[in-house]
Amino acid sequence: MSIILGIDPGSRVTGYGVIKEEGRNIRYIDSGCIRTSDGELSQRLLQIFDGICQLMDDYNPDEVAIEQVFMHQNPSSALKLGHARGVAMVAAASHRKRISEYSPREIKQSVVGYGAAQKEQVKHMVVKLLMLNSAPQSDAADALAIAICHSHMRHNLSLIQRSQNLRRRAR
Length: 171
Prior knowledge:
Mg(2+) 1 binds at residues 8, 139. Its cofactor is Mg(2+). The protein is of the alpha/beta class. It has one domain (2-170): Ribonuclease H-like superfamily/Ribonuclease H (Nucleotidyltransferase, domain 5), CATH 3.30.420.10. Helices cover 54% and strands 22% of the residues. It has helices spanning 41-59, 75-94, 104-112, 119-129, 138-170; strands spanning 2-8, 13-22, 25-35, 63-67, 98-102. A hairpin with a 4-residue loop joins β1 and β2 (13-22). α1 (41-59) runs parallel beside α2 (75-94) and α4 packs across α5 (138-170). The protein is globular, with a radius of gyration of 16 Å.
């Protein structure tokens, strides 16, 4: 049993999703958004840091998963996203949490089964997989998808490692 925190970083809105993994089953715990106020970038980054630290204290996740930065057409937006992502990673690392990173394509492939899925398809599958009554906010749904992806990847890695161990023993 482990608790996974998924983070969808953003300089204005950072989504988070918390799930509990029990064997092959996943259960929804919480999700939401850290919304920063207008103002200096440094102050918004501090709000993200404080928000992630609060989530660490509230849920004490065993592992953290975060989306990798993808290239934006606007370099300024990409830099701000990179800053937000870095601050979220430092907040998790300051709580001694293991952090895994996934590309948008990996997340979509893991949750929907198609790496070029649309946002609405991802949100639909998040609702189905977690048996939610309603769809969460877009950024929170993305963060839940990141947490689900991490759960799936952990399970797949575990199967591969067991298979390799069995082959070694058979030799």
